[in-house]
Amino acid sequence: MTYHQGNETNHIGDHMEESQKTKSNIDMLLFETAPNKSNQTNINKKNVGGYGTRLRPLTLTTPKPLINFCNKPIIEHQILHLAKCGIKEIILAIAYKPTNITNFVKEMEKKYNVQIIFSVEDEPLGTGGPLKLAENYLNKYDDFFVFNSDIICTFPLIEMMNFHKQNKAPLTILVKEVEDPRAFGVVITEDKMITKFEEKPLVPKSSLINAGIYILNKQILNFIPQRNCSLEKEIFPKLASDNMLYFYQLNNFWADIGKPLDFLKGQSLYMENLEERKYEKHMLLDHLLIYYSLNENHTKNVVHKNLFVSFENIEELNKFNENEENSFIKDIFLHTKIEGNVLISSTTIIKQNCVLGDNVVLGEHVIIGEGCRIKNSCVMSQSTINSYSYIENSIIGSKSRVGNWSRIEGLCVLGESVILKPEIFVNNAFILPFKEVNNSIYDKGAIIM
Question: Is 358 in the same domain as 434?
Fold first, then answer.
């Protein structure tokens, strides 16, 4: 067994991909708070988010944008890529403003050197109404990004904006080809344009879907009414019929992680993308990751075993790299079996004789007891999985505790601070926050309230 550690450097975002450097125009990437100048393109970003009901019970205690995905809040993945592009101002369109999102925003502003502004809806406004609500602010910019809040992908923002500007597009939609497009907005295309937009058709006429990232020219705000309005059902079909809707196709990984099953699938795709790009030093640094390869060479094939370690900040990452001993990692190599892709925090504790993977994420200050088996699952921060437990196809919410010899499988979601007593079996159940489970749950789809 061999391992390889990704090299470190010193500053987040210092290393932009060469292709981005050569293709980008700095006036296009950096924008100011001042009104438009004739030779300047300003880019803003509006993050549309609701109540996150599809990710309950996780969102009963944490707003969906702050749910950790691969050891980073969902929205931080988006902010990271926006900051890499030089974007300095972000608007968050939210239906309510809890204290924890306010504190989080302050951290993000400092970490990524951006300004984040809240636009709070007094009543639900759909996906289009929030743009009209912020019209006075957005009118300062020629063009601006709009993100759906539960999209994870490679974020080809620079390439997308280049396309948008070169074609003088009123509105550009990121699209992605998928196997089953019925759950998404489907686009019919011709050349560079979308000729028809159908929201969640029963019989799709195309495999290309709306991938949830848009670039709007400010003129589009004139088409949006000042009320609850759906971009997908009201605005996009009209723009398509008027030849005003362009598309940029994404060929890399993409996931809508708004449901538990999709969350785990997105987690797998995210780590597969990390595996493909694991030797790109700037990418690992931007994501505050260190990579180790634990591949075993066999006569017929190579069993891919990749361990990624995440850090809260650049100072912790640099401190870790300066310590040549790193007994934390050596203990994992000695006592833990890694299968496939595994992502852990630098503060994760893993006891002896555990088997992890494929597709496992362990959050900050998570403790995994001796002899545990975990696969295709996520254990969120400050949770404890006690000895000889088995977890598969499940999401364990933060601050939860799973007793010895427990078995959790069949797409289970535990909310925050759930306690499972020892020797409990849970099959395809959703357990609300702060519940204590004393008996096994055999009924599939059970909701424990």
Answer: yes
